[in-house]
Amino acid sequence: MRKERAFLAIITAVAGLQLFASGALGDTETHTLPETRVVEDRIEAETEKVSLEELRSGRFSNLGEALTEIPGVSGVKRSHSAVEPVIRGLGWERVQTQLDGIPLYGACPGRMDPPAMILQPEYAQDAYVIKGVPSVTLGPAGTGGRVMVSTDYERKADSPSEMGGWIRSTYDSARDGVLGGVAGFGGTERFDVYGSFAGASLDNYESADGIEVPAGQKEFGGSLSLGYRPFPNHRVRFGFIDLEDRGIDYPSLPMNSDRTSSRVFNWSYRIGQTGKSFEGFRFRTGYSTVDHRMNNEGKATRKKLEAETEAESETFSTSLEGKWRAWSSATLTVGADFFYLNRDALRSRHIIAASRTFLDHIWPDARQWDVGAFTELDIEFTEAYRLRAGGRFDFVSSDAKAADAPGLEGRTVRENYVLYYGAEAADVMQNDPLGSGNLLFEWKPRVDLIVHAGGGVSSRAAGVTERFFAFAPAPGGFQVGNPTLNPEIKYEVVGGVDWQNAWISVSANLFGSWFNDYIYSFTIDRRDVNGDGKDDIVRGFRNVNARLYGGEAAAVVKPFGPVSIPLSLAYVRGVNTTDDTDLPRMPPLEGRIACRVDFENRVPWWAQFGCRLAARQSKIDNDFPESETPGFAVFHLRGGVQVFQRLRVDVGVENLFDQEYTEHLTPWAAVGAGDLKQGDDIPEPGRFVQAGFKLDF
Q1: Which pLDDT score, from 0 to 100, does residue 43 have?
Q2: CA separation for the pair 438, 378 (Å, rounded)
Q3: Nearest residue to 133 (alpha-carbon basis) of 233, 23, 42
Q4: C-alpha neighbours within 13 Å on the C-beta side of residue 10
Q5: Cα separation, 633 vs 97, whole angstroms
Q6: Which residues of 219-240 are buried (b: 16+ CB within 10 A; e: fewer)?
Q7: For 2-696, which CATH class?
Q8: Residues 149, 98: contact at Cβ < 8 Å?
């Protein structure tokens, strides 16, 4: 392990020296927002931009970890770094993660590889979280918000020839390992290029009470973005990213990742022009593939059972949209898109004592495609009033090609669906017409004040796991999908205000949403499935009605000079109104406060002392595998110095007072591993130090 960490550090340093030796001239990444930006010419209230400075600070190994810094965004952590975003209490595949407009999906049935995890900090040029009513032009509707990332490196037209680069590396004492990355970028008057390489080699950690938690992580990858302007106002672009996982520990799951390869290719062409009725069009297409292998090596179950799963995910997406100037104060966007997803997974279980091997279909060659059409009007009545109105229609078709393959207890996969959901479940070919729409109003009475309000409806067909998970072992027992599920329909209202002056900036939002046919995980059966004499829990999926409401507030107070005080607060409540119970996996009330000092001296430096507070979460779903968690307060002390123009050094002490605590959304330990026993809460690291540098060329 130590040799691997040393090797990673050497590779990172050598790559940086090569950039320096090549005569790179640029200081920083100076470029315009890419074509995929979501704040282009339309209203996008309740949209948070992820700070690239924060994302590349060296504190995070992927985008998913960084997103939890945003008020209203939490994360389910099946591994320490495998963070699946939860936006305003909604997670799972309700949250759409898109890379340059391409919806991304992982290949692990246990959700080891949420899409935000494969997006390394070095890859992104822009990243946004849409929490409120989204534009219908952004693709098939999710019901839980969107994470939108672009790797498109685009400089201003006619920029001079230049090259630049940077290198960064961070040591993490909690996991006795390093994160590293290097990037080079630049171009000519017509050509833009950006390339990066990143890697991580991290070990287990101990909580404040000395509990060892498996957290090994070895991965590396890279990205490439190429852009070309063949004619004025025309641009063609190609992008590629790759991430190779060579072993990650997942204490919340009965297996660990052995190997995962994730690759995304995308291509786009756009024309943009001003002063004409037809303002331009954009065509995008992309393809992604994930090959995943996991096994139970390192788990307590390995002595009796050898288990391994091979899984794969394949997606294809394409879209075309055009924009017209409908009249002097309004633009009309019209377009269509297509998306295809194929998932397949097969698990082998070898019972050592009986010398018998069983094969379990998990995703039975499941396929889903979506074709959609949309139109949206953006009207600027005056400088003070704007309105966005849009609608889209989607047709989603789902099927399981291997539904007649053998399943548990001598039945086929299809017969097990029928066993739990009735005769209708025999038909695995399902078609769902979906509609979505939005109306968002913005009022700007003064230059320092913006008020917005709006509403919308969004819908989502049941995902591959919810609909087609074959009756098979799953964390906490067994699980079986439901082919008969209705689509989720969400009705939403939002409102908020943004205000600022010389010494304070404030943002506050309120939201409420009502679900028809919310897709809910529940205990469908309790019986001895595996023949060990004990009852097993079998979980399934059904439709219920639900309600969520809450809000976020954030402020930055600047009392004097270099001092600033950032504060934030976020709350969400979710209720299953069909059963009059709490929805599962609702994050607790959470707040943050810090005091930061920034000195722009001859040698600039900064320092921050801050705290993250979470309240006790007692509103839980007793039928779901979760328990109440106590509140906590975790402090940090961070600082940095610009040693000279191109070298920055940052140091932070996290969990400063060595607090023992557990995140509410972190699932229990699935089986014994490290110092954890089955069913234990998984604590976070105790006090630790992160120290790193970033060198620009």
Answers
A1: 60
A2: 11
A3: 42
A4: 6
A5: 30
A6: bbbbbbbbbebeeeeebebebb
A7: mainly beta
A8: yes
